[in-house]
Amino acid sequence: MTEETQSQIERTLVLLKPDAMARGLAGQILARFETTALKVVGTKMKWMDAEFTRKHYADLEERLGSEVYNMTATFMQQGPVMALVLEGYDAIATVRKIVGSTYPDQAPAGTIRGDFSHMSRGASVAVGKAVANLVHASGNREEAAQEVDLWFAKDELFDYKTLAETYNC
Ligand code: ADP
């Protein structure tokens, strides 16, 4: 692998949100990432509390206001989430592409949000709920580094080679 290619190998945090877990979609969602040659290097389940939610969504209230923050916090604490650290070439942007836009009704078919969820932002907000969009994924390199650090200790992350890496495919 060239140095340039190596520098594009990234790690990113993905959460399968409580709606994904409640609907039994973890396996299907994980398969989407694995078939794109993204490697699972860390995984755990966690039931988020108010303090941890605040740390994870540190800028959400400032960015989208307290109403959206409160709805999202309540939503994220309604059940356990599955946290994953995925590694691969351009992993951060690739995962966001596979996940699709924030609002499921605007997410194209073929994306996780577009295929498995359909509720519009308006429909969710009308019933006082956060947009149920199944997955969280880090937005950029800085966010990915912070989030991986928040969710995983160093010894919970693993280095190993997949067959795809061995055969460079
Ligand atoms: P993304 O998860 O796509 O990166 P954001 O970071 O902007 O999106 O928002 C975090 C989460 O907050 C979203 O995934 C969604 O669950 C919820 N959310 C965002 N905007 C709204 C909104 N206008 N109304 C209700 N919930 C929202």
UniProtKB/TrEMBL annotation:
Keyword Ligase applies: no
GO terms, biological process: CTP biosynthetic process; GTP biosynthetic process; UTP biosynthetic process
Keywords, comma-separated and alphabetical: ATP-binding, Kinase, Magnesium, Metal-binding, Nucleotide metabolism, Nucleotide-binding, Transferase
Domain Nucleoside diphosphate kinase-like, residue spans: 9-159
Name of the protein described by the UniProt record: nucleoside-diphosphate kinase
UniProt superkingdom: Bacteria
InterPro entries for the chain: NDK-like_dom, NDK-like_dom_sf, Nucleoside_diP_kinase
Originating organism: Streptomyces tateyamensis
Lineage: Bacteria, Bacillati, Actinomycetota, Actinomycetes, Kitasatosporales
Cofactor dependence: Mg(2+)
Similarity field: Belongs to the NDK family.
EC number(s) on file: 2.7.4.6
MF GO annotations: ATP binding; metal ion binding; nucleoside diphosphate kinase activity
Alphabetical list of SUPFAM superfamilies matching this protein: Nucleoside diphosphate kinase, NDK
